[in-house]
Specification:
The complex is a heterodimer. Chain A is α/β, with parallel strands linked by helices. In chain A, 47% of the residues lie in helices and 10% in strands. Classes of the chains: A alpha/beta, B alpha/beta.
Chain lengths: 322, 350
């Protein structure tokens, strides 16, 4: 969590310094992201992120330079290998990949894996995306097919400028799951231990062949929607302070100290490690060159077309003068 | 690199011989092709609304669930975005989905998944997550169907980077083009001309490209010297009819079945029109920004010096696809195509 917090806040600085053109901060959602990502078995499960799951990626062990490359505008979706990392490409369409998780999960059933050993798909979306029709289609499909999917909702209170109460009818996303016969847990998404426990519970349910499960992690987007956003236009600092609740990192720190699991030296070490990691990542991101332009053409199809080859040849001749 | 490569099974599971020429309707030819693809390629899945027990509203998937099981051939809930979004995930899991949207107009609710997801996933994932999805779309008009059941979406699909588009014109083409399309590692929109489902024709089961050529070539369906009619799908049969009538007046019309609407076989277009020096493109879709414009430009680019007249387009109109009573006024009919031919033949420079 310390590494994620430090990288997240640093990424905003990277943007201000011109290293990256934009970023979608997850400040305040570290417990929800790291806790859920921590529960993934990367030998058999598969995760479908949105554009704000840096903490999940870090918890799953994804190459973070390759992950952050999407924010450097190097490649839409990121440069990491989705098959090896078990993380689908970064998804910019709100709610776009939730159905993909259902399809992938149904594939695990079709592949004949025994109940108890099913690979599980976990898909992330937010309170804003819960308004999308695809979310409802996905929940219905998953329930009808008993697909091993965990729908992980981060209700962070805000869909850019629109608050949850103007976005989610019925009071919660979790309440909707009942309509599809999907068991749902609405949890304190700022309590990392609760998140890990709830996610493991949901995974066990899905892995055993009982079908989908939904978790609505109540959290708060402490930062702007993106580095281009100005939250001052739709909420005051006082509202932020009152609504955000206690910082999830601070809560976990107090708990570890109270339980005697960690001491101040541990936290100092974690922060030092986080800083060292961020420096390495920063250097890595800085060194990321542009992808060669031929990739624009080469990666559209597995089997290219004559017209595309002709366009590539023209581009080479006119842009690279070769 | 690709998890899309299909493991080819042994001979037909049921020992069906696959040789000789048979009289089949397009619906039967497609059913046969689907059956064989399912038997030969264990990763293929056939699904959509009513595709399972009912066998599809056009019976194209008839009997396939009974034969291949409800894991390989299945009904989905009634939600097109769900069907196509699910296809993306199945492809990511190593399957080769063959989904169906029941009618052309029902592709609209799924357009986000088709355009933003299916078409882009290979690119977005840098080739690690190919999308070997063959989307069957019963297409075009001509059957007096309700609204949204007679649309021609080829230009829309062809405009999207990452998609390939093909439309067969007769049972033989349907059988072979489907078998080819359904084993590709890229997404293919397979537009089935629903008005041609029940017409029978000779299907040479063993020989896809009698007379040579490759499965991605356009095909000369009738040779001619005076003018080339370019068409696809249901309009090919109409153009052949027109060519027969024109021949009575001594006009020797060549009919080119484009087959692939993306990628378009530019070489075949150029070869035909360089010979005939005149071209008319015929499609059911509305005129403005229709695929006919693309075809006309490709011809102009390749044949400008030899063209005797501007390329003519005979198409549907820029109106919502009309009710059955007005369908025959909308779809290019024999007379309109003959008028188009006449205009091109009578064109004088200056």
């Amino acid at each position: 969590m310390a590494a994620v917090r430090h990288l997240d806040t640093s990424a905003i600085a990277w943007q201000r310094q011109g290293l990256i053109p934009g970023y979608a901060p997850e400040l305040g959602q570290e417990a929800a992201q790291v806790g859920s990502g921590y529960a993934v078995d990367t030998t058999r499960d598969f995760v479908f992120p949105t554009y704000r799951e840096m903490g999940v990626a870090r918890a799953m062990g994804v190459d973070m330079v390759a992950y952050m490359s999407t924010h450097k505008a190097t490649w839409h979706g990121g440069l990491y290998n989705p098959l090896e990392s078990r993380l689908a490409p970064i998804q910019a369409v709100v709610g776009g990949s939730v159905l993909h998780a259902v399809g992938w999960a149904h594939g695990q059933t079709l592949a004949g894996n025994a109940d108890g050993r099913l690979g599980v798909a976990m898909t992330y979306f937010g309170d804003g995306a819960s308004s999308q029709g695809d979310i409802h289609e996905a929940m219905n499909f998953a329930a009808v097919m008993k697909a091993p999917v965990v729908f992980f909702v981060q209700n962070n209170g805000w869909a850019i400028s629109v608050p949850t109460e103007h976005q989610v009818a019925g009071g919660s996303v979790a309440a909707r799951a009942a309509g599809y016969g999907i068991p749902a847990q609405r949890i304190d998404g700022n309590d990392v231990v609760a998140v890990v426990e709830a996610t493991r519970h949901a995974f066990a349910h899905a892995r055993a062949g009982n079908g989908p499960a939904l978790i609505e992690a109540m959290t708060y987007r402490r930062g702007p929607h993106s580095t281009s956003d100005d939250p001052g236009r739709y909420r005051s600092l006082n509202e932020e302070r009152d609504d955000a609740g206690e910082d999830p990192l601070e809560r976990f720190r107090k708990r570890l100290l109270a339980d005697g699991v960690a001491d101040e030296a541990f936290f100092a070490e974690a922060l030092a490690a986080a800083k060292a990691e961020e420096e390495l990542l920063r250097a890595g991101v800085q060194e990321l060159g542009s992808r060669p332009g031929n990739e624009m053409f080469d990666l559209v199809f597995q089997e290219t077309t004559p017209a595309l080859q002709a366009q590539a040849a023209n581009w080479r001749e006119e842009s690279e003068h070769v | 690199m690709s998890n899309a490569t299909l493991e080819s099974g042994a001979d037909m599971a049921d020992g069906t011989a696959r040789h000789g020429v048979e009289q089949l309707s397009m619906q039967q030819a497609l059913n046969r092709a689907l059956d064989e693809v399912l038997a030969e390629h264990p990763k293929t899945l056939v699904f959509g609304e009513d595709c399972g027990r009912l066998g599809g509203v056009f019976r194209v998937t008839d009997g396939l669930q009974a034969k291949h099981g409800s894991g390989r051939v299945f009904d989905t809930p009634l939600a097109e975005s769900g069907i196509l979004g699910m296809s993306v995930g199945l492809a990511m899991a190593g399957f080769h989905p063959i989904p169906e949207v029941q009618f052309d107009g029902f592709a609209y609710p799924a357009i986000n998944q088709i355009v933003c997801q299916i078409a882009r996933m290979n690119y977005r994932s840098r080739g690690t997550l190919p999308m070997p999805i063959t989307l069957r779309v019963p297409s075009f008009g001509g059957i007096r169907a309700p609204e949204h059941h007679g649309e021609s979406l080829e230009a829309l699909f062809a405009h999207v980077p990452g998609l390939k588009v093909v439309s067969p014109s007769n049972p033989h083409e349907a059988y072979h083009l489907f078998k080819y399309a359904a084993t590709r590692p890229d997404p293919v929109i397979f537009m089935e001309p629903k008005s041609r489902y029940w017409q029978k024709g000779e299907v040479d089961l063993a020989n896809a490209e009698a007379g040579g050529g490759s499965p991605t070539d356009a095909k000369v369906m009738r040779e001619g010297r005076h003018l080339t009619l370019v068409a696809w799908g249901a309009m090919v049969a109409r153009c052949l009819q027109v060519a027969g009538l024109a021949a009575e007046d001594g006009i020797d019309v060549e009919v080119l079945d484009l087959r692939w609407l993306k990628p378009i076989d530019e070489a075949a277009l150029a070869a035909s029109v360089r010979k005939t020096r005149r071209a008319v493109v015929v499609h059911e879709a509305p005129l403005t920004s229709g695929l006919g414009a693309e075809v006309a430009q490709l011809i102009t680019q390749a044949c400008f010096d030899t063209l005797k007249a501007p390329v003519e387009r005979i198409t549907g109109f820029d109106v919502p696809y009309p009710s059955g009573d007005l369908e025959d006024e909308y779809i290019p009919n024999v007379d309109r195509i003959l008028f188009g031919i006449q205009r091109v033949l009578e064109y004088r420079r200056g």
